[in-house]
Amino acid sequence: MQSADPFADPDAIFADIQARLAAAVADRRHAWRTPTLATIGRDGAPRARTVVLRGVDASGERVRFHSDLRSAKCDELAADGRAALHFYDADAKLQLRLEGNAVLHCADATAEAAWQAARLSARRTYAIEPGPGTFLDGPDDAAFSAESPASFERFVVVEMAIASIEWLYLRAEGHRRLLFTQKGPAREARWRAP
Q1: Which of 15, 120, 136, 166 could link 141 by a cystine bridge, Cβ 3.0 to 4.6 Å?
Q2: Is residue 27 predicted with pLDDT exceeding 80?
Q3: CA-CA-CA-CA torsion sign (113, 114, 116, 117)
Q4: Distance CA 8, CA 116 (A)
Q5: What is the C-alpha to C-alpha distance for residues 161 and 62, in angstroms, rounded to an integer?
Q6: What is the pLDDT of residue 3?
Q7: Distance CA 19, CA 13 (A)
Q8: Cβ–Cβ contacts within 10 Å for residue 36, how many?
Q9: Which residues contact 135 (CB under 8 A, 6 or more apart)?
């Protein structure tokens, strides 16, 4: 028998997570559209920045976002693929943390398909000179140029294989926290103290 409280059933919670992530990919205004990505810096220190969620698979095992090959995040993920994504929806009072291993797709079939699906305005982002993070003399010294073959060469699809999902529901009656972990093809759900 299913509980009247959908946030008491791990299967219902996982389905809700999947639905919210899919909605975030489709809706530019969704609270989970722009999660915070955490990586391990080349100096061993943590690094965090906002990314745009671009895809989630139906099984809940992978998410995708895009980046510029010249960015620090790509350098960090190439050196150590361990990463985390943090999502928060203040209206729903839901926090989600995904941890896993990221793989960079550059100039391959995955990148080509994403590139073809991207809007021209998004593709032009990868034509900026100089590259992301370069120091400038003034605020407008970086130049966006027209899309070029170099733009695609700089375009990266970051695909993160999810090892764990931690869900936190902040409610007045008492918070709820649930951890999902991948165990081979199976997924395990365990409640945790909030």
Answers
A1: 136
A2: yes
A3: positive
A4: 41
A5: 5
A6: 55
A7: 10
A8: 14
A9: none
User: Tokens 């909605």, residue?
Assistant: 23
Q: Report the pLDDT value the prediction gives residue 1, as an integer from 0 to 100.
A: 47
Tokens 């999502």 sit on residue: 87
Q: Residue 68 is which amino acid?
A: D
Place of tokens 């009072």: 93
What is the dihedral angle through the alpha carbons of 80, 65, 87, 14, rounded to the nearest 10 degrees? -100
Q: What is the DSSP string of 18-69?
A: HHHHHHHHH-TT-TTSSPEEEEE-TTS-EEEEE--EEEE-TTSSEEEEEEET
Which tokens belong to 163? 């090892």
Radius of gyration (Cα) for the chain, nearest Å? 18
Tokens of 184: 């081979």
Are residues 111 and 118 in contact, defined by beta-carbon separation less than 8 angstroms? no
